[in-house]
Design goal:
Layout: H1 2-14, H2 19-26, H3 30-37, H4 45-55, H5 60-63
Helix pairs in contact: 1-3
Length: 89
């Protein structure tokens, strides 16, 4: 499922989260995240769940084929006192 990796990378970039930071938030090693993003590894549903939780998104996003429909839900707008990487609209 290479599309999971590309969706993960795109979402991570939209939210401006480094691989290192995602690793710390999810408990998944940076190396394994890299292998997922490059399509070398297919993550288990448990790993997708941990990544989804860390990214504050429903894991169904990773299984849908048309991710462009979800792009409107992400925004880098900053609200006072919030981290813009964690805001969804």
């Amino acid at each position: 499922m290479k599309f999971i990796g590309s969706k993960l990378r795109n979402l991570r970039k939209v939210k401006n989260i480094s691989m290192t930071e995602l690793s710390k938030l999810s408990g998944i090693t940076q190396g394994y995240i890299s292998e997922i993003e490059t399509g070398k590894k297919n993550p288990s549903s448990e790993v997708v769940g941990k990544l989804s939780e860390a990214l504050k998104i429903d894991q169904i996003y990773f299984y849908l084929e048309e991710s462009h429909r979800w792009q409107g839900f992400f925004s880098a707008k900053k609200k006072p006192g919030t981290d813009p990487r964690l805001i969804f609209y």
